[in-house]
Each structure stands twice: as C-alpha cells, then as structure tokens.
Amino acid sequence: MSETVILERDEAVAIVTLNRPERLNSFNTATTDALQRIFAELAEDPGVRALIVTGAGRGFCAGQDLTERVMTPGAPVDVGASLDTRFNPLVRMMRAMPKPIVVAVNGVAAGAGANFALAGDIVLAAKSAEFIQAFVRIGLAPDCGGTWSLTRLLGEARAKALAMLAEPLSAERAAAWGLIWKAVDDDDLMPQARALAARLAKAPPAALAAIKRLIHDAATTTMDEQLDLERDAQRALGYTRDFAEGVTAFREKRPPVFAGEG
Ligand code: T3D
Known about the structure:
alpha/beta, 2-enoyl-CoA Hydratase, Chain A, domain 1, four-stranded mixed beta sheet, Lyase 2-enoyl-coa Hydratase, Chain  A, domain 2, globular, binds ligand T3D
C-alpha cells in the first residue's frame, strides 16, 4: 500500500488505483516508484490472476507531474533518464506481466497517462473519458510506447494526426477506431471492469499468458515463425491440468474449474 497508489484485492483480482486526484493522478516520482514495486509484486503473486488499473477522482492520469519539472536556464532536464528509470520499466512490466491487465479509464488520460493506459491488455473507458497525446503541447513527442501502440492500432494517418495535433479523442471514437476495447456508461465502468477481471481470474492462467505473449510476438514475426510459436505454446498448454479440465468439463457438460496448476 502506498499513498500515491492504492492496491486492493478482491479474491484473485488486484485493483491498482492511481491516487492523486487533485493533480489528475499525474505521475510524480513517488507514483512511478510505487507502480514499479506493485507490478513486480503482482507479477510474482500466485494468488493474483488478473489486474485492474484505474484512477481516483475525475481523471485517469494526466501524464508526468509537470510541477516536478522546474525549468532552470542552463540546467536542462534529462527526460531520457526519466523514461529509462521510471516510465519504460513500467510499460515493460505491464507488457511482460503474465496476467491480464484490465485498464478502466475513468476520465482524461493525457500524455504518458494515455500511453500507460494503452499498455494494458483490455482497455475500457468511461464515455466521458478522453485520450490526449498532449506531449507536443509542451514540446515533446509521445513516449511510453505511444508511437508504437498508436501506429499499430490505428495506422500512420491517425497516429500522426493525434500526436501532432494533440486533439482529445473521445472514448467512443477510440473504441470505434479500435484503440480500446469498449466505451461504457460512466456509472458502469467499474462494475464492467470488475466483472471482466473476475471472469479473467477464472480463466486458465497459462492459456491467458500464452495468448498475451503470442499476440505480442506477432508484432515482429512472420506468419511462418508465428505458426511455430503457436505450436510450441499449444504443446506446453496441452500438458496442463487446465487443458485436461477444460476438455473433461466439456465432455461432462459442466462448467470447467481452472485451478491454474501446471
Ligand atoms: O518529464 C518526464 O519525465 C518525461 C515524461 C513525459 C511524459 C508526459 O506525460 S509529457 C505530458 C505531460 N502532461 C500534460 O502535458 C498534460 C497536462 N494537463 C493538461 O493538459 C490538462 O490538465 C488536461 C487536459 C489533462 C485536463 O484538463 P482539465 O481542464 O480537465 O483539468 P485542469 O484544470 O487542467 O487540471 C486539474 C488540476 O490538475 C490543475 O491543478 P489546479 O489548477 O486545480 O491546482 C492542474 O494544474 C493539475 N494537473 C493537470 N495535469 C497535470 C497537473 N498537475 C501536474 N502535472 C500535470 N501533468
């Protein structure tokens, strides 16, 4: 538990809440440190099978806390170092997390906050939420994998316009464009995120981890290479008890109970 980030548990679901609502949950150093600690802990915790990441108050996250950036002439800030030590490890931890991350975007997601959201696996957003590639407004380019995610998910034309113009993208349009999974009524956001995460927490964990890894691999492989990776993953999954349980349950016409054991 940390002041800037709240970690709660609901059975096998971990709920991670950015908790600086008065600053729209912007990332100060304490927040990124806490998130790194929490993600490292959750990755290793066998009792956690799915995560929800959300924000407290009216915003999701407004990116780097700009009050931490005091611009002194002659003493420029090394933003690259900040990415190296704070933001890039976070995005890498989310991508490598062998469990699904549901991101519940409760309000504005700007700058690094927008791309942090897109680093999750299933992104739900409240209809009132907006995604803003705000970087150019302060003389920066998108980071936290934004140039990668936007280009892959939307294509160059939309990625460039969003990054260059920093125009807010509504949750509904983000869903229609395929940037996120769904835009939902504001009051329905957390109930839907919780239902989704609870469902994922009951799914076979090894299969979910393999799906996540294979889909990430597909960004850099050929179809031919991917066929081999799928074969290897399927072979390993085929030896799990959850596969035996899934097939047995189907044949016995009952719901499967996936224990997540090898
Ligand atoms: O430096 C590095 O380490 C490199 C990493 C860079 C990555 C980045 O994320 S760069 C991009 C940084 N983020 C931004 O540029 C966004 C700044 N915020 C805004 O543009 C607006 O706040 C929003 C469009 C997100 C929301 O607008 P609105 O009108 O709904 O809210 P507001 O009134 O602007 O904000 C409410 C409060 O939160 C306000 O404080 P106040 O006036 O009530 O005391 C505002 O200053 C504060 N706040 C919002 N964003 C930030 C922030 N405080 C610090 N840092 C912020 N990023």
